[in-house]
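I have a small job for you when you get a moment. Can you supply me with one protein entry, sequence and fold together? It will help me judge whether the discrete encoding reads sensibly. Write everything out right here, beneath this request:
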Amino acid sequence: MTHPSLTIGVGARSGVPAAELLDLIDATLTALGRSRSEVARLATLASRTTEPGLLAAARALAVPLIGHAAEELAAVPVPNPSAAVLAVAGTPGVAEAAALLSTDPGGQLLAAKRKSASATVAVAGPGPDLRHHGDAEVRSGGLVDLAVNVRTGTPPDWLREHLAATLADLAAYPEGSTARAAVAARHGRPAEEVLLTAGAAEAFVLLARVLTPRHAVVVHPQFTEPEAALRDAGHRVHRVLLSAADGFRLTPGAVPDAADLVVIGNPTNPTSVLHPDLAQLARPGRTLVVDEAFIDTVPGERESLAGLRDLPGEVVVLRSLTKTWGLAGLRIGYVLGPAGLIARLGAAQPLWPVSTPALAAAEACSAPAALAEAEAASHTLAGQRAHLLRGLASVPGITVHGTPAASFVLIHVPGAAELRTRLRAEGFALRRGDTFPGLGPDWLRIAVRDEGTTDRFLSVLSALVQN
């Protein structure tokens, strides 16, 4: 039996007939491929909760009718605001806002507002699984890994040997000052503006625990851990959804002025889009968090904010050694930001949060020779990505939106879920896209690999799509 999980947001004129409202709800559910049995509640403006038509519809569906004050609804960003509704009801959206406000945390709009003569409805429901990541695609083994964006052939031999040499020091507690100084020198910052962490994931948790935002915004589609960490810490998260029609670029005005915490990836996972001039988002009273986990896959690390120290507000940059150096299992990353905030984040860490081998990796990968190797790898990657894009352009039905700049490419293809299953049967693992807010079941992410691997994949992909 299907567990009721859908919220129907309702906007209605006085005197709306229950039959009209139920017909509109049924039509909206049918368009989604859903049914009345999946509806958990109706939600509307508080002043409409005594409307006979709405009460009768709620009884017919055997669900509660929930009311929200206009000021509560007005605080919810909606995709289709109305000046006319704002003038009458005191909020630019009722149906969409009520649906979003009443659904479970992390929920999303499944159907935008739909109108009849006297009513408007929208549907919200559970959002994507924010804890699903690419490693889940390859746990069964025996597959060509196009799901995880870690550079193949890593860690390099010199780094393996360097890490192995630290095993003799494991009896001593970790001491991070040398590694911290090396990272600081690499970015031209004082050591007080650097915090070493057990991967970027720990940094997201620390930020969520330490910051107290009133209006937190996460720009999607992007890596889902920042939103998951914020929600786990009890923060309400507003999503800014970038559009495929705009090439997943950040458009002017997309981030609301009221946002006092903004989280964005650059280049963004999974879109691979590199956003220009993110410094424009910095302002007094705002914490801007830029996830640069993939910036070292971009030649010259262009558009990085890591070296900028004089921007307004608090600008925080997160880095990871996972992708370029193949250290996902070691857990090493770092945060760059104002010294005061870095101190607060550090105070929230447990003792000895980063292991001795991880500290050694941070120091070694900040050295000039390592930086030169990473830069060379980014140029090689650019050629491999161009090869993949040329091949994808020849496969019918596949679309790439925007300009990929990182170690992966996001594609749109009808029937992606079935295609992904068939590709697994042929030995290739791809990352599903439907767990990223703002995407859906017709999206897949493909890791960039060497030309030979890419050609074998493209041959199988083309055959499956055409058949």
Notes: The chain has 15 helices and 16 strands. Residues 332 and 358 are 6 Å apart (CA to CA).
